[in-house]
Design a protein that fits this description.
Blueprint (H helix, E strand, L loop, with lengths): L1 H4 L6 E4 L4 H9 L4 E4 L4 H12 L18 E3 L2 E3 L5
Parallel strand pairs: 1-2
Antiparallel strand pairs: 3-4
C-alpha cells in the first residue's frame, strides 16, 4: 500500500466504480477521497485541495498563508510537493 511507505501522500481515487461497496472498499484501503467519473475538473481540484491543505475555509479555499499549486495533466491532477 502506498500509505504504508508514504503516509503523507494524499490519495484521491478517480474511477468509474460508484457502488457503495466499491467506494467503501477504496476508502478502507487507504484512499482519502473518491471521485466517480464523469466529474467536473473543478471538483477534482477542490477535492485534491481538501485532502492536502490543512484548514480549508468554508469556501473550500486554502488556509491563509498556504502556498498551494494544483496541477492538471491529461488523466491526473496533483499538488506538487516542495523540494
Amino acid at each position: 500500500m502506498i500509505k504504508t511507505n508514504y503516509p503523507d501522500v494524499a490519495i484521491v481515487l478517480v474511477t468509474a466504480l460508484s457502488r457503495p461497496e466499491e467506494v467503501i472498499a477504496g476508502l478502507e484501503r487507504g484512499a482519502d477521497d473518491h471521485v466517480t467519473k464523469p466529474f467536473h475538473p473543478r471538483e477534482l481540484v477542490l477535492r485534491a485541495l481538501l485532502v492536502t491543505v490543512p484548514g480549508p475555509d468554508p469556501q473550500g479555499l486554502p488556509a491563509e498563508g498556504t502556498n498551494v499549486t494544483v496541477g492538471i495533466d491529461p488523466g491526473r491532477a496533483y499538488v506538487p510537493t516542495k523540494s
